[in-house]
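Protein folding task:
====================
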Amino acid sequence: MRQLGDGSTVLELPSRMPYDQVEALAAELEQRPDVLWAEPDLWVTADAVPNDPQYATEHWHYKEVTAPSNYGANLPPAWDITTGSPSVVTAILDTGKLDHEDLVGRFLPGYDMISDSQIANDGGGRDADPSDPGDWITSAENASGYFAGCPVRNSSWHGTHVAGTVGAATNNGIGVSGINWVSPMIAVRVLGKCGGSSADIADAIRWAAGLPVAGTPLNANPADVINMSLSGSSATCPTTYQNAINDARAAGTVVVVAAGNNNADAGARSPSNCAGVITVGATAGDAWKATYSNYGATVEISAPAATRLRRHDPLDAQHRHPVAGRRLLRRLPGHVDGHAPRRRHRLADALGQPHHHARRGAHDPPGHGDPVPGWRERLHHGHLRCRHRQRR
């Protein structure tokens, strides 16, 4: 049993139970006069032109619009204006981070917020080391034991993928390009083997925003922007999430989340269905919805999504150690997060409005001023693209 930042208490069950049974137990607890609310602990999973060599060959999603097949974000005009600010901090709530030549010097001290030592997979629970030890699941683990039923997989190194998109060292003549070249990042580890819990993520949101969390030191570098490229199935936003998001926003932090990769309504995924977040969908090269991206009324903006770059499987035979020099790029919402540190105040202002529509232009999908049937329902408010008009 432990307490969260909003005063609620996390109760540990004696053993794993099906979600519907936990939901029924929560409903029963909620009937007690001394209980304000109760809900299951939701389980979630990882959902200026630089001279970096792979920018020319792999980064279509960063480049200018060349209709009809390349609807990129057109970042070079934005880079001419700014490549970020060293005073604006982005926290990446994910699987943690790996050492990589393109991320040297890009991180401020972070934290591992995973409370379950088996999920953490690093020999302990919460600590000041957000390094990613891997989140692989073997066939034997899938068949029985603590991780029974978890999908068999190699390690994802997902947090490093996201960091590469948000802020890989750029214009350094090696590897890939980040969207934001100089704004520092914080790795906050919330996902481990088989995923992570909403209780841990709620604590991580508060910690990242510079708010107190029991048993952890205060974050000395509160985040201006929080990225969460993760999601779990939930018809409504869990109160645990919403309280933490509200607290972070009150502290001045912008929260950017993934719509999810289920090709379904993002309104049925959390935290994308929470209030006060910027929910980001993904578009393909033709500016239509990427086949995997979630969609719907909760999606504030969509952005070009790269195919993940993988030269080799970055694992040894034990699925533990990344091979030096081989790394991936993650998709969204890292694109919007990389942009957010340059536009944080406008984004924060926009979140106070019922809707914040992106402006359509000459290179938008077919239909231009009048979207073709289904465009608005799928992409909702608009498509991320930088323009010279940003200089103001």
